[in-house]
Amino acid sequence: MFPIRDHNPSGRTPYVTYGLIVANIAIFLSYWSLFQQPRALNAFFVDFALIPALVSEGAGLPGFVTSMFLHGGLAHLAGNMLFLFIFGDNIEDEMGHLRFLGFYLACGLLAGVTHYAMAPFSPVPTVGASGAIAGVMGGYLLLFPKARIDILIILVIIFKVLPVPAWIMLAVWFALQLFGGFGSGPGEAGVAYWAHAGGFIAGMALTVPLWLKRGGPAFWNRTHGHPPHPEARYVRGRTHVPRAGGRRKRGSGPWSRR
User: Fold this and answer.
1) Taking the CB of the first residue and of the last residue of the chain, which one, N or C, has fewer CB atoms within 10 A?
2) Quick one: pLDDT at residue 253?
3) Are residues 16 and 97 in contact, defined by beta-carbon separation less than 8 angstroms?
4) What is the spatial distance between Cα 127 and Cα 189, in angstroms, rounded to a whole number?
5) What is the pLDDT of residue 181?
6) What's residue 244's pLDDT?
7) What pLDDT is stored for residue 195 in this prediction?
8) Helix, strand or coil for residue 36?
9) What is the pLDDT of residue 186?
10) Which stretches are transmembrane (predicted)?
11) Sign of CA dihedral 67, 68, 70, 72
């Protein structure tokens, strides 16, 4: 189950979302050659990733920020940027450009703090933007719980695109992070589940003031949990490849990914 797009068009160009995507890709390309040199890559991550054990020793604090712009591979980068592209523009539309940037960075920092709190002596370098992006997803869930998300379901050789309400997709995703967090040992290499969960909760909490400003429960009553504007619709052409109609969007080593 993998989200590929939403039906929630934004009302303005999401410059910050696009800028974050470009920044993450550019930074990844800047150290791409190190993937052919494992020792150099690990040394690079020691300098710029988040390493809880170093933080516990009083060092490595910049890693809380720098780790948000590093990725452990192409698939890691592509998955994170897809999630940011799907959910980021709508939150930026609601918050405004500068507030969204502050929100994104705050969610990333709180995700890192959560990861550190759950494994303060882990020597495993942690990299990835998904803690911050999880915060964006938490904000999206609070503001647009019934916005439709198209998910790609792959069952062996069957590929199916299915629209589901955002709350189902995001609730399942969050539950998987909790399951993974409780099911894995502290500091294990792999996926930083607690960073995801912490970022998601932080995103919801930091979005509460905006939600209340919109009317809180009254906002949900007015919109019925849907986007407060007409949804984007998709049609299928002769090639059966979905295309947008009337949509305003344009659109390997011992480290943990988030």
Assistant:
1) N
2) 52
3) yes
4) 11
5) 84
6) 41
7) 94
8) helix
9) 55
10) 15-34, 41-62, 68-88, 100-118, 124-144, 151-179, 191-212
11) positive
Residue 241 pLDDT exceeds 70: no
pLDDT at 104: 98
Q: What is the pLDDT of residue 63?
A: 95
Contact (CB, 8 A) for 67 and 49: yes
Q: For residue 65, give Cα distances in angstroms to 40, 62, 68, 73, 127.
A: 21, 6, 6, 19, 10
Single-letter residue type at 83: F
| SS3 state of residue 122 | coil
Query: Which two structure tokens, joined as six digits, stand for 29?
Result: 């390309």
Write out the H or E segment, with its range, that includes residue 3: strand 2-6
110 CB neighbour count, 10 Å cutoff: 23
Side chain identity, residue 198 = G
Question: Which helix (DSSP H) or strand (DSSP E) does residue 245 occupy?
Answer: strand 242-245
Instruction: DSSP for 144-210, please give it.
Output: -TT-EEEEEEEETTEEEEEEEEHHHHHHHHHHHHHHHHHHS-TT-SSB-HHHHHHHHHHHHHHHHHH
* 135 closest CA partner among 178, 87, 63: 87
Phi, psi of 152 (to 5 degrees): -95, 120
**Predicted pLDDT of residue 258:** 67
The 10s digit of each residue's pLDDT in 82-134 is 999 999 999 999 999 999 999 999 999 999 999 999 999 999 999 999 999 99
* CATH tag, 2-257: 1.20.1540.10
Which residues are registered as beta bridge partners of 244? 234
> Tokens 């912490």 correspond to what residue?
198
**Residue listed under structure tokens 């993974």:** 180
Q: What is the mean pLDDT of residues 155-174?
A: 87
